[in-house]
Amino acid sequence: MRRIGWLLAAWLATPLAHAGCFEQAAAYQQVNARVLKAIAWQESRARPQTVHRNANGSIDYGQMQINSIHLRRLSQYGVSVRELMDPCESTYVAAWHLRQMMNKYGNSWAAVGAYHSETPAERDRYARSVRQILESDQRFARFEQSSGPLTQGLDMRTARADVQPDRAQQQSQPQQVQPQQVQPQQVQQAPARRQSAVGSDPVQIAEQMLRQRPPPEDDRCLFEDLAAC
């Protein structure tokens, strides 16, 4: 069992005149902010109160559609459903999850696809969707330029886990938009925490859905409802 040591930092005042939570979370986990935004667009059209039940019984929460299979591990960092329904917190957790996939698959489109599923066919399909969003989706381009208030946070609290990431595997590089490279020896960042600004209603709905059925043993999700998200 891994021993996780915590180094809790003080609350940080973050002026966000030119940087939102996507940029902050990306910098914190050393991933690509544009890729994070494209994932948010793919998952929920960047709508923070999205809750989606999958055919396998798992539930996807919030703007970044974090799957319920991760709740047990996230609880070690003090992250619950309430935090996942907050757009900024959800973005930090998504950056953490993407960083884990990059540690495993390298700086590749396979890592981007594995954000959704590590099943090869689903992984590759998801990566193609994200890449298409980045390259040609005009509505995403307008969203990216708007930098709306839902992508901006207030104060945040950061934490570092004393866990060495898995050795990154050698993979081919994405040809255009690339997640930012990191050395495999680097200490992996835990999901950051921030004050939740979400109301109680969507959280209560999400928690009620979660109680109806326990999380499954895997986090493979289906694509059938993504177009409606």
From TrEMBL:
InterPro entries to which the protein is assigned, alphabetical: Lysozyme-like_dom_sf (IPR023346), Transglycosylase_SLT_dom_1 (IPR008258)
Signal peptide interval: 1-19
Keyword tRNA processing on entry: no
Stretches the record annotates as Disordered: 161-202
CDD domains membership: LT_IagB-like
Keywords: Signal
Domain Transglycosylase SLT: 21-117
Biased composition (Low complexity): 166-198
Family matches, as Gene3D superfamilies: 1.10.530.10
Domain of life of the native organism: Bacteria
Name of protein: Conserved hypothetical secreted protein
Organism lineage: Bacteria, Pseudomonadati, Pseudomonadota, Gammaproteobacteria, Lysobacterales
